[in-house]
Design brief:
Layout lengths: L2 H15 L4 E4 L3 H4 L3 H15 L8 E2 L15 E5 L4 E7 L7 H15 L8 E8 L2 H7 L4 H7 L1 E7 L2 E5 L6
Parallel strand pairs: 1-2, 4-5, 5-6
Antiparallel strand pairs: 1-3, 3-4, 6-7
């Protein structure tokens, strides 16, 4: 599953949970270029993402107004006023990078995007396909670090999303 498909499935899930969700998604050039198959998936996912939001248009490759960290734009930034919950999520998927490099990249981006004070309403996360090679890499992140930074794991497959909370072992 390519990164753009991970983003699409995760956002579908978040919109099911929060009817008032406002979100931005970063689709980089590599997701829209590359081999023909990858490019087609990126273009299809971008079009589906643009039609996803029911309340406000989903912003693609922009910064959400309530995102105040100027260090790096996350793959997904989403906010629900009703639940007062913010999601800041890095996504990984099929690509040319080695598996461990993908996880190092995702984890470093999550760390860079954390605030100095983290509340329980700020959900930091890493979203990956629900496959053993990704899960093996996620298990390398110590649980006490996940709890300290409130890092959730989102395992994405065709039938849905499994959320692993920071205090859960898997």
């Amino acid at each position: 599953m390519y990164q753009s498909a991970v983003k699409l499935r995760l956002l579908n899930h978040l919109f099911e949970i929060h009817s008032d969700l406002e979100a931005t998604v970063d689709i980089d050039g590599m997701e829209l270029k590359g081999g023909n198959h990858k490019q087609q998936i990126g273009v299809i996912c971008k079009a589906k993402l643009q039609n996803l939001s029911l309340t406000k248009p989903l912003q693609i490759n922009s910064t959400h107004p309530s995102y105040t960290n100027n260090k790096k734009r996350p793959d997904i930034f989403a906010f629900s006023k009703k639940s007062n919950r913010t999601y800041i999520i890095e996504c990984e998927g099929k690509g040319s990078l080695q598996m461990n490099m993908k996880m190092y990249s995702a984890l470093s981006q999550v760390v860079i995007n954390t605030k100095s004070t983290i509340t329980s309403n700020e959900i930091y996360g890493i979203a990956v396909p629900d496959k053993q090679d990704y899960i093996k890499q996620l298990r390398k992140i110590p649980q006490h670090i996940r709890e300290l930074l409130n890092i959730h794991f989102f395992l994405i497959n065709r039938s849905g999303v499994t959320i692993i909370k920071p205090n859960q072992t898997f």
